[in-house]
Design goal:
The chain has helices at 16-29, 56-64, 70-76, 88-95, 101-108, 117-135, 150-159, 164-178, 193-203, 206-217, 220-224, 229-250, 265-278; strands spanning 5-9, 34-37, 52-55, 78-80, 83-86, 141-145, 184-189, 254-259. With 286 residues, the protein is an alpha/beta fold.
Length: 286
């Protein structure tokens, strides 16, 4: 059976984006049709980024106070029965517009990753189901960075401090949905979590670093534990790492651990190629 989905997971600063790009390069060089979707892609086929959810009456209420943006919202909203999905980030990018604060907050409060955990699980699993049904009939291998394990843990554990079992079940449900795609999981490890994250903290824009710390310590797990600042964020990441390892052990899909501590691009690419070959991503398509 062909592998139609490769999942790249790991903690922030561990090299997920670089790994995903290298995997894409390897597949293209091997004459395999492949599509790469990195974190933050506004056109992601299985996840939502910058998308808000409304029922019919809620969307009609939004339209009533949207002023000059009314026609754009009505044109760009995606309707599925009584469900309305507004890709507001894509609209802002496409039209080069700024939405006034009051209207933006009304939209952002309905972002799929700002909804309750149960609502998020329902909408995300629905989205993955639609993707799997589409991808099974395509001659293509999708490469996803971080949306399979990271996103459920970010909203479940980090944002809402949910019980581990609920978060684990969230990811296992996604795994069940995609099993028909013969997925492969590449989980990126580093020898020293604290060193790797502090390196990313220094190298990335200050806006990212401060936003990340705020998200990890001022809600959910971090807030419950009274964690603050950079060191508190690292404590949350260590707890997240433990939970991700527990999830990894329970997953029944093809998977492998990849240590990226001694990163050197040529050697690392060769290692990735060998891992993919061992997992029969290549042989299946010859």
């Amino acid at each position: 059976m062909k592998t139609k989905l490769i999942l790249i997971e790991g903690l922030p600063g561990f090299g997920k984006s670089t790994t995903a790009k290298l995997v894409h390069d390897i597949l293209i060089e091997s004459k395999i049709n492949a599509s790469l979707f990195l974190e933050g892609n506004l056109d992601h086929p299985a996840d939502f980024d910058g998308v808000s959810y409304f029922n019919k009456s809620e969307f009609e209420g939004l339209i009533a106070c949207s002023g000059d943006l009314k026609e754009i919202f009505q044109e760009k909203v995606i309707k599925q029965g009584n469900e309305y999905f507004l890709p507001y980030r894509k609209i802002m990018e496409e039209y080069g517009i700024t939405i006034d604060d009051n209207l933006f907050h009304a939209i952002f409060d309905k972002d799929i990753y700002e909804l309750s955990l149960d609502e998020n699980i329902n909408l995300i699993t629905q989205r993955w189901t639609q993707f799997a049904e589409q991808a099974i009939n395509e001659n293509n291998t999708y490469i996803f960075e971080c949306c399979f394990i990271q996103n459920p843990l970010t909203i479940g554990m980090v944002k809402y401090g949910a019980e581990n079992e609920k978060v684990i079940q969230y990811v296992l449900t996604l795994a069940k949905i995609i099993e028909k795609l013969n997925p492969v999981l590449l989980y990126i490890e580093q020898d020293n979590l604290e060193y790797s994250f502090k390196k990313a903290y220094k190298e990335r824009p200050k806006e990212w670093s401060s936003g990340f710390i705020d998200y990890y310590t001022n809600q959910g797990y971090g807030k419950k534990k009274g964690l603050i600042g950079l060191e508190g964020t690292i404590s949350v990441l260590k707890a997240r790492s433990d939970l991700e390892k527990e999830i990894y052990d329970q997953l029944q899909i093809k998977k492998t651990l990849i240590n990226n501590s001694q990163y050197e691009i040529t050697d690392y690419k060769s290692s990735l190629m060998e891992k993919l070959r061992t997992l029969k991503v290549f042989n299946e398509r010859k």
